[in-house]
Amino acid sequence: MAYRLGLTGSIGMGKSTTAKIFAAEGCAVWDADAAVHRLYGVGGLAVGPMEAAFPKAVLHGAVSRDVLKEIISTDASALAEIEKIVHPLVAADRAQFAETATSDILVFDIPLLFEKGSEDMMDAVVVVSVDETTQRARVLERGTMTEAQFEAIKAKQMPDVEKRARADYVVMTDTLAGAEAQVKAIVKEIRAGLTDA
């Protein structure tokens, strides 16, 4: 039975980079956002049910996230309906990964891990963190959202201080070398525990 490690952190904290470091250490990584992209893409399992519920949301055989955002902004009940379609499909994708992955440590990269109560399914949780100034700068440097959008997303996420308090491990991502050293130490500790078990 592989060790299940949850990986989470607020927007701009360096979660994707940290996931890559875990992968480089031989861990199998499942990415919740990537799973949604697969489900929304051409031939994805969410396309049919989404088209039935929101016909305008499907363009050229794929679900448009931009159209979904517009629908959610005008219809308060839409988000719950979308989640009802997508969450079971994401859960099935995650279960399939857990069954087929061959690594001793499975890393589950889930942005809203604590918010959705998914930490109970994990053996331990890693929270990635950085100071607020760096976080804001990273997000705005991407050029994909305004400061107002960043603040809106942040408002929906559990505060970083609370996530860190609930974590088994915290990886500070202010420097790449520092993050790599911390991930290596976590993997080493977990693997030592697995060999003792």
TrEMBL record:
Pathway membership: Cofactor biosynthesis; coenzyme A biosynthesis; CoA from (R)-pantothenate: step 5/5
Residues that coordinate or bind ATP: 12-17
Alphabetized Gene3D superfamilies for the sequence: P-loop containing nucleotide triphosphate hydrolases (3.40.50.300)
Taxonomy, superkingdom: Bacteria
Role according to the record: Catalyzes the phosphorylation of the 3'-hydroxyl group of dephosphocoenzyme A to form coenzyme A.
Major location (coarse): cytoplasm
Recorded GO CC terms: cytoplasm
NCBIfam families the record matches: dephospho-CoA kinase
Protein name as catalogued: Dephospho-CoA kinase
Reaction(s) the record says it catalyses: 3'-dephospho-CoA + ATP = ADP + CoA + H(+)
Family: Belongs to the CoaE family.
Keyword Repeat in record: no
Keyword Isomerase: no
Class of enzymatic activity (EC top level): transferase
UniProt-listed Enzyme Commission number(s): 2.7.1.24
Matches recorded under PANTHER family: BIFUNCTIONAL COENZYME A SYNTHASE-RELATED (PTHR10695:SF46), DEPHOSPHO-COA KINASE-RELATED (PTHR10695)
Recorded GO MF terms: ATP binding; dephospho-CoA kinase activity
Compartments, as annotated in UniProt: Cytoplasm
PROSITE patterns: DPCK
Keywords from the UniProt entry: ATP-binding, Coenzyme A biosynthesis, Cytoplasm, Kinase, Nucleotide-binding, Transferase
